[in-house]
Design a protein that fits this description.
heterodimer; A: 419 residues; alpha/beta; 9-stranded mixed sheet; 13 helices; 35% helix; globular; B: 509 residues; mainly alpha; two-stranded antiparallel ribbon; two-stranded antiparallel sheet; 6 strands; 3% strand; disordered N terminus
Amino acid sequence: MQRRDFLNALALGAGMVVPLGRGAWAATAGAGTGTGDATRRKLVVVMLRGAVDGLNVVAPVGDQNYLRLRPTIGLAAPGMDGGALDLDGYFGLHPALAGLQPLWQQQKLAFVHASGSPDATRSHFDAQDYMESATPGRKNTPDGWMNRLVAALPGNATPSRLLGIGPVLPRILAGGAAAVNLPNVAGAGRADVLDKPEMAAAFDRLYADHPRFGRAYAEGRAAHREVMDAALNEETAQMRAADRGAPLPNGFPDDAARLAALMRNDPKIQLAFVALGGWDTHAGQGAAGGQLANRLAPLGQGLAVLAERLGPLFDDTMMVVMSEFGRTARENGNGGTDHGHGNVMWLLGGKVNGGKVYGEWDGVGDAALNEGRDLPVTTDFRSVLAQVAERHLLLGDRKLVQVFPAMPQRMPSFQVVRA
Amino acid sequence: MSSRPSWVAPWAGAALLLTLAQAQAAPLPPDRQAVHVLNRLAFGPRPGDVERVTQMGVQRWIDAQLQPEAIALPAALAARLDSLDTVKRSAGASLAEYLALRKEVRKDVHDGDEGAKQRRRELEARVAREAAEARLLRAVDSPRQLEEVMVDFWYNHFNVFAGKGIDRALVANYENEAIRPHALGSFRDLLGATARHPAMLFYLDNAVSSAPNANARGKAGGLNENYARELMELHTLGADGGYTQRDVTELARMFTGWTFDQRRLASGGEGFRFDPKRHDKGAKTWLGQEVAPAGQSEGERALDVLALHPTTARHVSRQLAQYFVSDDPPAALVERMTATWRATGGDIRAVLRTLFASAEFMSLDAAGAKFKTPYRFVVSAVRASGMPAAEAVVNVTPLVNAMSQLGMPLYGCQTPDGYKNTQDAWLNPDALTRRIAFATALAGGRLPLAAAPASLPAAPAPRPTPLDPAALQTALAGSVSRRTLDIVGQQPEKLRAAMLLGSPDFMQH
């Protein structure tokens, strides 16, 4: 009741951010739900919708075929002007991702190349659907794998345990367990119309137990209260004050910084999902600079910000970046690339066996290409996610099957996640 | 697309029952039919609409809606539309102004000046505002409601994202020339109009696609398969339409040369052009058929085949049934619509006639089964409020902003699949709170709809005029359940209008 009254006071126009204080929050967080320890290990999934060109994210600059396939958009060799950043003497990182280099050097960043979905579709929409349901080829799966994951993990479900950033709830989060979305993290701490007691009373009556909308309404209110509490924390207030001095660029870096603060302040947040668009570079994608570089730069910066601002929590956090499929190995007639197959997955975090590019790799010679046009899929994306679930989130074998049904028989020979 | 019972386990059950019982779907009682057709063939009732449709007869009203050309636009709406210069003008004139400013910006950047940049921003803002204004005023005010509903449907079916380059200058013209004239006409004409419009040629890159070795305008040519893929996957056959990657590539080759020239469009108004220098003159094999080299007519023939293809008929019929009946529409209805499509060669009006005359459409299960998209929620709320948009809504920005906050910015869908219209896509915990906030602001008269966009910040805000809950309740008679009316009736009068527009009943249609 105390918290409720506090929110009401805020809504009535007090306008002052009164920190609850970390101690006060920590006391309520653990006691009420018993999820404090169960939710200690975190997962952040970033999905690049539109099929990012993985061959220019982690580019095989050491392959003699690479620049032959990509005469105008290929990245130059490391050390050259606008050249790729050397990873292992063969692969090079896109220079717009320079902000991630320290994580690579600290072995907190790894890639799995030529990975993806075994389904051959080159439809964005079907392929994204499969990546979110984790049931390639099966369209009638009712829920997303992150929702099944939160249900399978030990500990109680709370509305903010599974969190999406964006105005709609993506398929990956949908399902039987509670999940919420925040349109943007910046607005998360603001009081809304239903924080006014008379409005809340009126609308609670309309929606309580409503068969169609009651659940969404109740979860929205509960999550709003949890997130408000976390956002009102002292540390966030300080962070905001600091932001005024040095504003972060709009978009992902900004959201990433605020997400880090929310995760530090609200121990109940365990699984988070962000989708970023604009990767469908059919024309004029550029090389070291240009369209793709302009998208990669804020992504890399945001991931670095998230890693940094999570502080000690980074050790318990795994970030996975994935995209529905890769793009053609050859550039097309318009300095772009068309829809392909295999792509690169990125993993960042304290438990990553980092500093390495994993995956079976046969180069980009004509004979190695899938259907003569793109990367084959040599590692099923689900087997990488399964490693994260098992080794990082400590999900048991029996539960793993619930999250990833019909897993491929062939598992990768590498361990990208440290035990 | 898949169905997800995420928020709606009870509803998923209802959908299953509907599938099982489709043969004998319980008919909608006559006294509920007027509300139902206003919720589906229109963007919800305005005050007095239910009585008007009842008096006229539901069937006669449907027939009239299927002939929009016979319905005159009200003078006030026509005058407002006539005042929107950037919407009225041709694609060429629109592009010319945009390109001229872009050129000035480049010169300014060179000279270290900011003036042109400011002017370009102003032009972009004005173009976007006027396009939204035209669309929303029509959606709220036009008596040709079905036409506007179909514009919403087809715009999403043939989506073009206004944020991509010069398309910001072209989307209003695209809607007015490629979409609206064909909204109830022949699917083949609609398909052809979208295929040839510079907005689509630019958005899905066909304008730059050329034969691998063509040397057009001194640039190295090459194939771009973006349009060919989405043409089959989204516009016609559907993702499960049975075509292969080879079919995509071959179709892209057939469409090489379908382009436009920015300078010719801006200076002489030439839209579509076929450029034989870009065209791949080799033989092709597409969907199992040999295609003899025939220049531009290869693309035209491909559109003929796709428009009449049984798989297209079924795919688009299903999408129409999903939009008008339920998220998982009855298969038997889709089959009857498909048959009409094939019998009429893709006559949209005839297919809709089959749909509206069906027992599945006029059934108890269908009434209220759809969850409103943010677009429909906003438009239907303004309609229910009774304000004549052409006179009362000077400033559409609050409406545009509401749609953006709800995740559905107007002309702002980046991907070619357009916005979905299913409950899975739009119902989420945050959305309900935001819709309630919008309903509360509209009901309280606190949206600055009457303020001129350029009004001085110092000007005193007009006194809010809250909506009259009794009038709203009358307008929504038949759309709101007894339970909701009882709860609303027990609350203070000042909350009632907000509660009606923010009620669970008003989220669905």
